[in-house]
């Protein structure tokens, strides 16, 4: 029975989230029942959607219950198994949460998946070849439906989703433009992630100003937009959407901390005959195999070379998560647990 | 050469549109060239989209040029023809504009179409069996894609588009709820147009209050919404959309007169995984035959019994148009020209 350190949600944020919303708890892993597997986590994934779960109000998912282990994707290895399909040493991906070990009912569909680490590093199954990669794939392929030669824009461009979006968009013959916070991130986007251009939103005081920068970076207008942030960035890009443009809405992180942010010009949906569609990738499990295959190939062939920002130890998870919300990470934010 | 009275746009509105934006002009119809047809208009259609055209700024169409005859749909009869497919007495529908006669290049695709008035009154080709009817059809069938048993909502419920929407939605086994201004319109919606319920938005001071009325009228939430007005009504309905709801955006008339109206809760697009799509029916000519066939059948079988509000004489068009914008009409607003 190994000792298991866990992070639970202690209290809900009022305004901005902070490390004080979380609490460390130390337990022991329980003995396995028939059909269960004990997984030792190597990496915990930190993702923006977790901020939405911290709030009380109904979002698309139930709020994270207080006093329970924070939800989260994990990769690791099987250390003990009472399930015929898993054996000690298997590399697995699952939703183990913010803790060092998890006990998984392995018969539950989608609960635990074996992965191959020959060509893809284990941690990538939480990023480029995992939920964030499939998120980019779904928004691009199923909502934006790009044609070669079109111009695509993605916000939070250097994050796990944005990085994958760039590689997937370039593979389809599109011009791909990122929006990110800071010159360093923008340089990284162009030099390492393959973006054709990247706009630093930080010097822009308002949507009007940012919109001019979008115009400069997208001389033929914007055909497809992948929205990770909302607020001023959404307003700015909407002003540059071409007729019949498509907007995949994946995140509205700008509005998580307080009052809901309005959309300045909804009449553009009509004027430019836009399609805007929100989605959650976990509701579209049918596309995962196809998407993961393409993403793994992009990684194996060096066309998708994502970076990771790695915090060490479960105790560092709260601070690392707040850093992610503030954009301090470059690429996929992980916590290394071994 | 008959005398032809025309209404031209004289100056652009500052804030609200008014009859003083228009000017009457009297001319003579020119002699016909080969391939042309002279049409005497029986009815002129007045439609909300015309308000958008009066503004200077680029909308989805070029602005209406100053000093030229206002654009508009017309039905009438051929009085003289130099085109082999048309002869005097033919009933026709076209875009003749705000005038008593028009000279039409009948070879131009879509410029002039012969219609059958055996089962459908001529004026209906400007409403239920015309552009407004096809508009309702496109938004419902191609964007909302309703399933039997779902709940649909339409704003400006008693107008030409809303009336057709109700009949089309009921034909698909849906619960159809209208939103309109005033108790009289709501009574008409339920008693004559077949709406299951109709909400009078006028007593509601804000979106929150209106949203409660939407909840009462739609106990199972809203699956499909057809938006004709924007502003507070859109905000109110969005709060009641079910997961995976669809919003067809056809009009944003609430914002035509001044500052753009924001959307209060765009994050709902993500939270409820909504699809919002703007459209202009003239860009989808491929659906017109199928749509018109269904609409004509609904009229012929008494399942769609639209009302008309009819002003007399071309001189009354500006005042009638302002009345339409203020919601003074019941059903399709027409101007009778003979």
What keyword list fits this structure?
homodimer, 338 residues, Quinone Oxidoreductase, Chain A, domain 1, Rossmann fold, 2 domains, 7-stranded mixed β-sheet, 15 strands, oxidoreductase (chains A, B), oxidoreductase activity, acting on the CH-CH group of donors, NAD or NADP as acceptor (chains A, B)
* Reported CATH architecture of the largest domain in chain A: Alpha-Beta Complex
Beta content of chain A: 25-35%
Enumerate how many helices of chain A there are, as a single number: 9
What is the global morphology of chain A? globular
Q: SSE order of chain A, as H and E?
A: EEEHEEEEHEHEHEHEHEHEHEHE
Provide the low-confidence segments of chain A as ranges: none
The largest interface is: A-B, 31 and 31 residues
Tally of separate domains of chain A: 2
> What is the count of β-strands of chain A?
15
Radius of gyration of chain A: 20 Å
Q: Could you name the CATH class of the largest domain in chain A?
A: Alpha Beta
Q: Characterize the biggest β-sheet of chain A.
A: 7 strands, mixed
What integer is the average pLDDT of chain A? 94
- The proportion of residues forming helix of chain A, as a percent range, comes to 25-40%
Q: State the secondary-structure class of chain A.
A: alpha/beta
């Amino acid at each position: 029975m190994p000792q298991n350190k866990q992070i639970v949600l202690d209290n809900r944020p009022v305004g901005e989230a902070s490390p004080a919303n979380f609490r460390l708890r130390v337990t022991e892993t329980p003995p396995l029942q028939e059909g269960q597997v004990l997984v030792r986590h190597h990496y915990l994934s930190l993702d923006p959607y977790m901020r939405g779960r911290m709030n009380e109000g109904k979002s698309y998912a139930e709020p994270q219950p207080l006093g329970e282990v924070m939800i989260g994707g994990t990769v690791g290895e099987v250390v003990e198994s009472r399930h015929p399909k898993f054996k000690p040493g298997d590399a697995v991906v699952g939703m183990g949460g913010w803790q060092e070990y998890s006990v998984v009912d392995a018969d539950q569909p989608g609960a635990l998946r074996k992965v191959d680490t020959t060509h893809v590093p284990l941690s990538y199954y939480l990023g480029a070849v995992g939920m964030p990669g499939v998120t980019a794939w779904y928004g691009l392929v199923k909502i934006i439906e790009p044609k070669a030669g079109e111009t695509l824009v993605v916000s939070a461009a250097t994050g796990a989703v944005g990085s994958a979006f760039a590689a997937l968009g370039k593979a389809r013959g599109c011009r791909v433009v990122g929006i990110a916070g800071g010159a360093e991130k923008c340089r990284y986007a162009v030099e390492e992630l393959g973006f054709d251009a990247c706009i630093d939103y930080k010097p822009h005081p308002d949507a009007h100003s940012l919109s001019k920068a979008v115009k400069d970076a997208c001389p033929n207008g914007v055909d497809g937009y992948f929205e990770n942030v909302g607020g001023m960035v959404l307003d700015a890009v909407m002003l540059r959407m071409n007729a019949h443009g498509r907007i995949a809405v994946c995140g509205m992180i700008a509005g998580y901390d307080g009052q809901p942010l309005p959309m300045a010009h909804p009449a553009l949906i009509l004027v430019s005959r836009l399609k805007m569609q929100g989605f959650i990738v976990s509701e579209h499990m049918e596309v995962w195999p196809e998407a993961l295959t393409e993403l793994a190939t992009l990684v194996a062939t060096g066309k998708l070379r994502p970076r990771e920002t790695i915090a060490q130890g479960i105790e560092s998870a709260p601070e690392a998560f707040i850093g992610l919300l503030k954009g301090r990470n470059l690429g996929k934010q992980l916590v290394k647990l071994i």
